[in-house]
Amino acid sequence: MSDTHHDDIQSHVKTYIKVFVALAVGTLITVLASNIHLGIILGIIVALIIATVKGSLVAAFFMHLSAERKMIYGVLLLTAAFIVVMIGLLLFSRADQQGRQEGIFAVPQGHVVVHPE
Amino acid sequence: MSTAIEIPYNSTERPDTGLYNAKLGIWLFLASEVMLFGALFSTYVLLRTGADKWEHGAEFLNVPLATINTLVLIISSVTMVMSWASLKMKNLGRYKFYMGMTILCGVGFLIIKSIEYAHKFETGLWPSTSTFMAIYFTMTGLHGLHVIGGMIVNSYLWGPGSKMWQTDPERFTNRIEVAGLYWHFVDLVWIFLFPVLYLLPGK
Amino acid sequence: MTEAQHHEEHHDELPFWRHYIFSTDHKIIGIQYGLTALVFLFFGFCLMLMMRWQLAYPGKALPIAFLTKMLGESRMPGGVMAPEFYNQLGAMHGTIMVFLGVVPLAVGAFGNYLVPLQVGAQDMAFPKLNMSSYWVYFIGGVVMLSSFFVSGGSAQSGWTSYAPLSVITPQSHSLFTGQSLWLTGMVFLITSSLLGSVNTITTIIQLRVKGLTWMRLPFFVWAQLVTGFLLVLAFPPLEAAGVMQMMDRMAGTSFFLPSGLVVGGKALNVSGGGSALLWQHLFWFLAHPEVYVLILPAMGIVAEVIANNTRKPLWGYKSLVYSVIFLGFMSFVVWAHHMFLTGMGTAINAFFQTTTMIISIPSIVILTALILSLWGGSIRFNVPMLFALAFLPMFGIGGLTGLPLGLASADIHLHDTYYVIGHFHYVVAPGTLFALFAGIYYWFPKVSGKQLNEFLGKLHFWGSLIFMNGIFMPMFIVGMAGVSRRLYDGGTSYLHAQNVLYLNKVMSHSAWGLGVIQLIFIVNFFWTLFAGRKVTSDNPWEATTLEWATPTPPPHGNFLKIPEVYRGPYEYSVPGAEKDFSPQNEPDKKPGDSNNPGKK
Predict the structure, then answer these.
(1) How far apart are the CA of A72 and the nearest CA of chain B, in angstroms?
(2) Is the pLDDT at A53 greater than 50, yes or no?
(3) What number is the ipTM of this complex?
(4) What's this model's pTM, rounded to 2 decimal places?
């Protein structure tokens, strides 16, 4: 093929190396962060943020998602929506169980509430 | 099989979608895999929120080994994409080198995984021990099966499958791209599995 | 020699087993799916016919001696159905009809055969993948059926396999138990479905011929496209759940086993900490979109048959397309309406009730559009059209009876009663199955070159319509009286059921009548194939869509010349046109030039 195409790939290769370094660093950071006692909620959030950043790098650069077509974005958007629905509604159903109504699901005064043992 | 039929857009891209067939196919498959592992992550979430106590993985899972495994998979992702880039640069020899490295990394991952599992069984930690161990073994086990599957495909493409480079180099390059997408996905799942199972604090 | 003949010869050089058994031709694969699915449908139907004996005459010996002897003493002690066997029949009837019968027929057979043809393609995007999807389905079916022969019998916890019953029945780590084989079979079937739907979606998006824009697609193709997405995205959570239930059964895990579970007086020796509800959530996350997988291809078939036999375009094509897309999307957010009585709180119940009410809207739009399509049409009452017309009110009843079930408070009374069974059977049996029959009668001439006998077809239709209603209408009455489903004695031991018990006999006799009527169809089917009248035209119904622009039956590669599309899918009775139908692939004639017919 033409030389410009060759140079194209060469620049891509440089990007791959940079992404690899970022991923390796991210891995080390996430392990180190887990050794710090951040508490449960913060610990989960930090771990998930780092994982999401790493995952996005893999998706965007190794999987060429940053330059992909609308059709692929559409499929992935649909998938992401349904994952959110699945996890979200599962959590929602866990929170809103009969006899375990707290917070926003609290039963108003004057109604019978069953407390778990 | 008879080569009488010509399926269009096998190697070339369809103008309005900008995709060749296998690329759309593999992304659809990956979408289904997202739902598969997503359901397992949902299970983790539901079991964890419903439990009074939840183990801190790092206390009895081997974090150093798993960290090495994470780096092994990341390296394999780099070598995988390099193998595709080598074909784009018309270099079959380089492709074989990088694909070979990818397969070796996969082997390494599985060896480390087996060591981990063997150690768990020796210390009396089985899937039946607790819901934490159950979800640990199921998620890493299913992920491991996906690694094996990817390695089988990669080995075929490294070996007998590479003959296609002589007859239809563009189609072969696309095959490597598609195999690469699957392999990167396997890496991506592990990028989430590792912190969730090994690093998250318990309760 | 033309190019097509050259291709034909090339293909005919294949040995028999590669031409007909391991074919990669979508038409042969479609026929394989169709024949296999019809056999499974018949088998699943026979399971129900046996159950209906027990329901109509509980505790009485089955008067068919050879059948009783074949089934053996453990299943039919003294000729009377054992309760465990009744449960096996129930679980397998549901499983086989849904996963081995209707979906493979609607999606695997009709989808595979017609989608490439209707988009103008020579085959599916991935022919080899297509072949493997059929064989994986076949293996899954064999595994499922083999479960009848292992010790303890087949799965017997309903097609829904709720935990913990499904996990502890029987308590065994062996793979060769009915439930574990059910789980294994499901893995195969889900894999097959996945391979197939990736193929369908890619084919529709990538292989449409020139001129076939999105809004010129036959509605059947739109329905298959949305169905494909439902299968790709909804099945995997069930696969994950199946793996986990397998782990519970064979590896002693407690994904779905709560703490402190006591079985047969003994506490289970497991870690506990699991959630039986988790299984229900993951199961229904698939199983609700699955019911739309059951209905969407049927709606697609009915649309094709109605447009063709009214000789006018469908009413509201755009509204049909937008509705089916919206329906597909909504089907992912309604699943817990199957779980209203599991102890979920009022907020989440209200959420799912709301989405369920919303999802009825696109269904109503589609049904209304199909009904309005009849207005002003020159209706031809041939057999496909009779089935398609009957689909409309039957699906209407099915859909309307779903509404009280979707309202959480009404569901308190109706959940797990015969009302539910009546509701979903109306949608699937005189609904989807009628649409599939319409499709068989409609496309039979293209596939085989012969036309099914019209008189026998009308007998089949009227008999089926009458008996279907005889079976399922009483179920609403029985259900509202409070009779639970899955009862081995049909309600005999319950006081509240006594007044409606006689209906069990009505339903059973209707079921056996329905079985006799299907024999007419079977006879018609085989007699026509071997000795039937050949059709004289490639397009006997004078239809507009691309599958009719092929030789009969279509050769390998489908079209003698790759078609180009010039118009929408339902250009019937176009003002000023020569014929009352304008095929999609025929270019516009020059105006005022009736002496020059234009190229074929």
Answers:
(1) 7
(2) yes
(3) 0.95
(4) 0.94
